[in-house]
Amino acid sequence: MHIRLYYTICGIFILFLCASLRLCAQNTVLTLKECVRLAQTQGPSAEIARSAYRNRFHRYESFSAGLLPQFSLEGTLPNITRAINSIPQPDGSLLFRPQSQAQSSAGINISQQIPLTGGQIFIGSSMSRIDLFGENASKLWSVSPLVLGISQPLFQLNSVSWDIRQQEIMIDMARKQFHEAMEDIAMDVVARFFDVYLAQMNVENARLNVIINDSTYRLSQGRYTVGKIAENDMLQNELSLLNAQMSLSTAQLDVLNAKQNLTLLLGISTNNYTIESPQNSNVLRIDSALALEKALSNRSEIKNFELQKLNAERFTTQTTLNNSFNATLSATVGLNQTAQTVPSAFNNLLDRQTFSLQIGMPLFQWGRATHDKEAAQAEEQRTTLNNTLQIHLLRQELTNHIQRMILLDKQIIIAKKTEEIAQKRYEMTKNRYLIGKIDIKDVLLAQSEKDAAFRTYAQTLRDFWTGYYRLRRLTLYDFEEKKMIEYDTRM
Fold this sequence. Notes:
Shape: elongated
Radius of gyration: 40 Å
CATH class of the domain at 30-59 and 164-309 and 381-484: Mainly Alpha
Mean pLDDT: 87
Number of strands: 10
Distance between the termini: 54 Å
Strand order of the largest sheet: 2-3-4-5-7-8
C-alpha cells in the first residue's frame, strides 16, 4: 500500500517536472542581442572564424619560434661501404682496390639568425668514426668538440628583417579579420532574427485577420439572409476569409522555416522559443570624425594595404640588390683532432679555421637590370595609388553609411507612427462596416494598408539594426560601450 502510494507520488512529481520544463522551454524569449551573443559564442560560424584565426596564430608562433636559437642533432649510424673503388696512389696514379668500411658520425648544433644583419651564427660539436675491415682492419676517431661559425650575406636582401615586418602585419590583420568575422555573424543573425520576427508577426496578423474575417462573414450571411446586402458582397467576405486562412497556414510554415535557419546559426538544439520585438536604439549619436578615425585604424583592409605596400617595397629592394654587387662571408673557428681511441682524440687538440668570401656581380645584361628596376618601381607606384583610392572609397562608404543610419533613425519613428495610424484607421473602418455605414471594399482596403504599414515598419527596423551592426563592422568600435570591439579567440 505504502509502496504504491510512493510510486504514485513519484509519478505525479515527474509529470509535474516535465510539464514545468516544457512550459519553461515554450516560454523562452530571445532578444536580438541575446541571439547575437549565442551565435558569437557557440554558433558554427563563430567556431569556423576561431579556427581560421588559430591557424594564422599558430603559423605566426611557429615563425617567431624560428627566430629563437635552434637546436639540432644529426648523425649517420652507420654508412657501410663494400665495393671496388679507384684509389689514388703515392705517384698520382689510380688503382682499383676493394674497400670495406663503415663510417659513423653524430653532431649537435645550435644556430641563431641575426635579424639586424640577416646573417646566422652557429656553434656545434661533432664526432665521427671510420672502421676499415679486412686484412688491415683499423678504426679511427675524429672529434670537433667546439666549432663557432658565422654566415653573413653582404649587399643582399635581409629577408629575415622583411619577414618579421610581414608576419607582424599579417597576425594583426588576422586578429582584425576575426573580429570582423564575428560582426559578420551579428549581421547574419539580424537578417535571420527579423525573418523570424516578421514571420511571427505575420502569424499573429493572419490569425487576427481570420477572426475578423470570420466575424464579418457571419455578419454578412445574416445581412444577406434579410436582404440588406447583395450576394456579391457576401461572397467577397467569404473569399476574404478563405484568403486569410490560407495566409495563416503559409505564415505558420514561414515561422517554422525561419526558426530552423536561426536555430542553426545560434548553435542551439530546440525551436521552442519566441523572440522579443526589437526596438529602436538611442546609441547612434555618431561622431563622424570618430567613426572615420576608428575605421582607418581598426579595419583589416588598412593592414592589408600596409602589407601590399611592404611587399611592393620588398620587391623593389630585392630587384635592385639582385642586379648589383653581392657577397657572402663564411667563417668558422674551433678545435679538432683524430686518434684511434676516443680519449686520445681529445688530447693535444688542434686549431680549426675556415674562411671564405664568395662574390658575384652581373657585368652586362642588355638592359635587363634597368627594366627590372623600372617594373618594380611601377608596381610599387601602382600599389600606392590603389591603396590611396581604396582608402578614399572607404571614407566615402563610411560617410554614406552614417548618413543612412541617421535617416533610418528618423524613418523608424515615421514608420511606427504610420503603423499605429493604419491600425487605428482599420479598427474604425471595421466598426463602421459592422454598423452598416460603409462597404466591405473599404474594410479590405484598410486591412491591406494596415498590413503594408506593419511590413514597412518591420523592414525599417531590420534595415536599422543591420546598419547598426554594419557600422560596428566597418569601425570595429562599440559606440554603445565606447570601446574597441574585441572577442575572445580561445572559446
